Amino acid sequence: MDINMTVAGQVIFVFALVMGVVCYYIGRRKSQTPVLTGLLGGVLSLIPLFGVIYLVVLVLKKDVGENEIATAKC
Known about the structure:
One of its GO terms (molecular function) is hexosyltransferase activity. This protein has one domain (5-73). It contains four helices and no strands. The mean pLDDT is 88. It is mostly helical.
């Protein structure tokens, strides 16, 4: 079965858009610059492995609100 390069490019492009949106929504809680987080997630998703790794790192990052509370207690 042959895969047309046009179809493969379209799949990667749609994957990058979806990952950019997902990274934006997660970045709203996890960072102070969610637009930059979403943009970086979309660009890194042009190579799908990098996009998935970035998403995992973003999910494992602590929320911004938790960091502010932790520094206020110290």
